[in-house]
Design goal:
Elements: H1 2-29, H2 34-39, H3 45-55, H4 61-73, H5 87-122, H6 127-141, H7 144-158, H8 170-199, H9 203-210, H10 215-252, H11 258-267, H12 271-299
Keywords: Cell membrane, Ion transport, Membrane, Nickel, Nickel transport, Transmembrane, Transmembrane helix, Transport
InterPro entries: BPD_transp_1_N, MetI-like, MetI-like_sf, Opp2B
Main location: membrane
Length: 306
């Protein structure tokens, strides 16, 4: 297991290099010049060229990229072009908020999705099964930003139960977490249902029933553990999707997290901030996939880690 983890960590190096290169090249193609933005309106061409030289933007792109990677390896992501503060410091201020939102959302995704999927599988073709699958289809189809606005309208504007926007209390967390986790819960519910239906038809489940074991013991002790493997895959992928989804959700609910920081940086063409934010999010996603692989082995000892 230790060798597997070390090998997977080493495999993340080219992935992260690829991510950093793609983001760097995309930002180079975005219209606008950071030097012009920093110099301000009415700046002379000489002033703009001076700013470009100070930022190192007058050097060849390949040199700019390798210089960025060299410093990033040392934990230096440069300084923000907007406020001259270290990029890593700005990210570390915003990152805990995004992680709290993502963890609350994944909790909703897992709990609601698995409960709905198990109920749907154990009551196949019943009204409960049909209702859950219809709701799951709606959850997958509805855009998260629209769903968030509707939650604000009903629970904040009309009923005054939750705050409209902001962050800092449990009440502030509930609506954004539901917005972000609803779509994932729908996907997990469908996957749990399919996996459970496949498992409950296995011979060992029939044997357990023939022995007279109680149905809830058969489902939760014998069936669910074996049905979790594909569900774990979906949950791992959903966590990565949640990190991306926080961009819209944080904008809708005016949450100053990492997603909103990246959006603001893109608007102002703050290249170091965009690169740093995306790279940190990529690191989290890669290590989440590593955790998924480890959980595979925990739930199924027969899985080969080589």
């Amino acid at each position: 297991m230790l060798l597997f983890i070390i090998r997977r960590i080493l495999q993340t190096i080219p992935v992260l290099l690829g991510v950093s290169l793609v983001v760097f090249l995309i930002m180079q193609m975005v219209p606008g010049d950071p030097a012009t933005l920093l110099a301000g309106e009415g700046a002379t061409k000489q002033t703009i060229e001076m700013v470009r030289h100070e930022l190192g933007l007058d050097r060849p792109i390949i040199y700019q990229y390798f210089d960025y990677v060299f410093h990033a390896i040392q934990g230096d992501f440069g300084e923000s072009l907007r406020n001259n503060r270290p990029v890593l410091d700005e990210i570390m201020i915003r990152l805990p908020i995004t992680l709290q939102l993502a963890l609350a959302s994944i909790l909703i995704t897992v709990v609601l999705g698995m409960i709905a999927g198990i109920i749907s599988a154990t009551k196949q073709y019943s009204m409960a099964d049909i209702s859950i699958m219809i709701i799951a289809l709606l959850g997958i189809s509805l855009p998260s930003f629209w769903f968030g606005l509707m939650l604000i309208y009903f629970f904040s504007v009309n009923l005054h139960i939750f705050p409209v926007a902001g962050w800092g209390t449990i009440q502030h967390m509930i609506l954004p977490a539901i917005t972000l986790g609803a779509g994932g819960a729908a996907i997990v519910a469908r996957m749990t249902r399919s996996s459970m239906l496949e498992v409950v038809r296995q011979d060992y489940i029939r044997t357990a029933r023939a022995k007279g074991l109680k149905e809830h013991i058969i489902i939760y002790k014998h069936g669910l553990k074996n049905a979790l493997i594909p569900v774990i895959t979906v949950v791992g992928l959903q966590f990565g999707a949640l990190l991306g989804g926080t961009v819209l959700t944080e904008s809708v609910f005016a949450i100053n997290g990492l997603g909103r920081l990246i959006v603001d940086a893109i608007r102002t063409r703050d290249l170091p901030m965009v690169q740093g934010g995306v790279l940190i999010a990529s690191v989290i996603f890669v290590f989440m996939n590593l955790a998924v692989d480890v959980l595979y082995r925990y739930f199924n000892k027969r899985i080969d880690l080589n």
